[in-house]
Amino acid sequence: MKITTIMIAAVTLCTVSCEQPQLRHEPPVMLKTETELDREVRRIAEKGFKDDERERQLPAIVTVFSKRTNLKRARYLGMLCYLKTKGTPFTPLDMAEIALTETGSHGLSSSSVSYKGALGVWQLMPSRARSHGYSPKDMKNDEKCAEAAVQELFTKMKIARGNLKRAKKLYCGVGPQADAYEVKRMRFRREIVEEMNRYRSLWAENGTCEMLCPS
After folding, report:
1. Could you give the CA distance from residue 173 to residue 169 in angstroms, rounded to a whole number?
2. Which residues contact 63 (CB under 8 A, 6 or more apart)?
3. pTM to 2 decimals?
4. Would the CA dihedral through 188, 165, 200, 85 be positive or negative?
5. What average pLDDT does the structure give for the chain?
6. d(CA 199, CA 26)
């Protein structure tokens, strides 16, 4: 699925790595057919962020993403964090903090490649991507990379016996690198949570999301 130019233009959404990515990436090529992502963008844009706590995480995620990449891409990646975690035990915040830890210092680039060979925004090793039914090349596609990342986190949850915090650390691995990764992840999580608290305060004062959208 790829988001369309028309939908990107229409969106007004209110809008953590032990690896060393190297390259930057331009936003993906847009198609003219409406996708599930397009429909979800339009639905949320039309009804606002009033019903679902998962949706209420989006403005904060996009704000934090937009400090590392352009706003259009920040909104796109934020929506992926939301859409790809629907129906799972994970939240958009869970996927956002992993993305920031993995490639936040490299512009959240889908062309990121670590010195170990991990790929994409969520930095899947080729073997791990294949284990989830994706090719290494697929990891340059943000949507497929997000899907693979969710499946990878599911795998780590099983190893961690349902402990989500441990599963996120295992997403990186074990040992000193994973310890350093966890420190970074928690820093990014706090950054998003601080934005969430700020938005909640503004929301309570104004009762609208319009003035909360990053611009």
Report:
1. 7
2. 15, 74, 195, 214
3. 0.76
4. positive
5. 81
6. 29
Q: Is the dihedral of CA 105, 106, 112, 115 positive or negative?
A: negative
Burial class (CB in 10 A: 0-12, 13-18, 19+), 27: middle
Instruction: Tell me the C-alpha distance between 105 and 158, whole Å.
Output: 29
Q: How confident is the model at residue 16, as a pLDDT?
A: 35
What does the alpha-carbon distance between residue 81 and residue 58 come to, in Å, rounded to a whole number? Answer: 9
CATH architecture of 5-202: Orthogonal Bundle (1.10)
Placement of tokens 């090349």 in the chain: 137
Residues 6+ apart with CB under 8 A from 198: 60
Distance from C-alpha of 131 to C-alpha of 129, rounded to nearest angstrom? 5
pLDDT in tens, 51-108: 578 888 999 999 999 999 999 999 999 999 999 999 999 999 999 999 999 999 999 9
pLDDT in tens, 1-48: 444 333 333 333 443 344 444 444 444 444 445 566 666 666 655 555
The number of CA neighbours under 13 Å toward the Cβ of 179 is 2
Spans of all domains in the chain: 5-202
State in Å, rounded, how far the first CA of the chain is from the last one. Answer: 26
